[in-house]
Structures are given as C-alpha cells and as structure tokens.
Specification:
This protein has about 250 residues and is an all-alpha fold. It folds into two domains: about 80 residues, Endonuclease Iii, domain 2, CATH 1.10.1670; about 100 residues, Hypothetical protein, domain 2 (Endonuclease III, domain 1, Orthogonal Bundle), CATH 1.10.340. The protein is built from ten helices and no strands. The longest helix is centred in the middle third of the chain and has 19 residues.
C-alpha cells in the first residue's frame, strides 16, 4: 500500500521572520504641519518683508539673456558656483551670437566646476541658437516660448518672468517647497501644488518679491536639516510644531 504524505502545515506570511531576529521597527511619520489661515500667511510674509525690504536674486546677471543662462546653469548647483563660472563665461560670450560662436566645448571650458556641465553646455548653446533663429536674439516675455527652449522648465521660466520682466510669478525650488510644507504657508505634494497655493494665498501686492523672500529664508534660516527657528522673524505665525531651540 503506498505511503501517504501528510501535507505541510500552513505558515502564515507574518511568521517568516528568521529565528532570533525581531521585526524591524517602523519609523513613525512626522506629523503634517497644518495650513496657516490667510491672516497668518500675511503675517508670515510681512515679517520676511520687514527683514529684507529690497530682495533680489543672488545670481549675477546683466540683462534678461545672461539671467536666463545663469538660471539654466543653476540647476543642482549653488549660486556662488554659478557666479564664479559665469564671470568668465559672460566676459567671453555676453549675448546669444557670441555664445553660439563659442560652441559647446568653449562653454564647457567655463562651467566644468558646476554640476551637470556637459548637458548644460549643450543647452546653453542650443537655446542661444534658438533665440537668434526664433526671437531675434531676445529673451521672449512669454511662458510657453521660454519653456520651449532647451534646459528651460517651469521653474526657470518663472524666475525669468519674475526677475527680468516683473511678473508676479512663484518659482518653487527645493527651499520654497520645503517652507511651503514645513511652515504651513502653502502645503502641497508637488512643486506645482505649492506654487499654485502660494499664488492663491499670498497677498497679490507682495507676490513678486515673495519669490525672493522665501528662497533666501529657506537658504539661510529655514534650512533643510536644522531650521534655525530661534532667529526666524516669522516664527510667530509659523505652524511648524518641532521648532528647534537655540544651540547650547
């Protein structure tokens, strides 16, 4: 008579942890900062305005064209590093025609110290060529035309429209995205969501300069790793719960 084989007992999936090892602890998620109300939004941005009445970009530029190139180069690079590179680049190629004449290798020679320089060199030369061919060598005062240029996305277009043409746009970089969510100023899951919330919630008359106030605040005070809440002029309306105490 054939021997019967007893079926193996079922092992629940949650028992497959190796013997002697404890399940890894699940890290609790940080509590989401609640959104400020509109009165708090105004108080927050007014406090930043009082501390810096005349904000400006930290990128060095002479005109809309050099601003456009500097912003394209600033992706994943510091403004200090970009300014160091563009000092010699703009001395040799201050306009689209001279940039095209300089060529990709010539541009690369000036910008090797900044991140992603190979692709940026190609983009700078090609966008310069397209400015000559499609826009008479001028930087267009139009979002769609700007975003059609190589290396120019929504954030870069917003910076150019804001700084060069005085438009009340909001370019959301990593600093502004962090501040919008951390403080409750304009929570959003994506940069575009934060941008739309800021445009909707900030006082219209303060929107143009708010771009600079928020970037500079994120760069020097509301830092990524350890926000310096103890010296934040807008700490009152800020809804960030885990405010950091002064050192020592």
């Amino acid at each position: 008579m054939p021997m019967s084989i007893a079926p193996k007992p079922h092992r629940p999936t949650d028992l497959k942890q190796p013997v002697g090892k404890k399940p890894a602890a699940t890290k609790p998620r940080a509590a989401k900062t609640p959104a400020m109300n509109l009165a708090e939004v105004r108080a927050f941005i007014t406090a930043l305005a009082g501390a810096n009445p005349a904000p400006r970009t930290e990128l060095d530029y002479q005109n809309p064209y050099t601003l456009l190139v500097a912003v394209v180069l600033s992706a994943q690079a510091t403004d200090v590093g970009v300014n160091r590179a563009t000092k010699t680049l703009f001395a040799e190629a201050p306009d689209p025609a001279s940039m095209v004449a300089l060529g990709v290798d010539g541009v690369a020679r000036h910008i090797r110290t900044i991140g992603l320089w190979q692709g940026k060199a190609r983009n700078v030369v090609e966008l310069s060529r397209q400015l000559l061919e499609r826009h008479g060598g001028q930087v267009p005062h139009d979002r769609d035309a700007l975003e059609a240029l190589p290396g120019v996305g929504r954030k870069t277009a917003n910076v150019v429209l804001n700084v060069a043409f005085g438009e009340p746009t909001m370019a959301v970089d990593t600093h502004i995205f962090r501040i919008g969510n951390r403080t409750g100023l304009a929570p959003g899951k994506t940069p575009r969501a934060v941008e739309d919330a800021l445009v909707r919630r900030l006082p219209p008359e303060m929107l143009q300069d708010a771009h600079h106030w928020l970037i500079l605040h994120g760069r020097y005070v509301c830092k990524a790793r350890k926000p310096e809440c103890w010296r934040c002029v807008a700490a009152g309306p800020c809804r960030y719960r885990a405010k950091t105490p002064p050192p020592g």
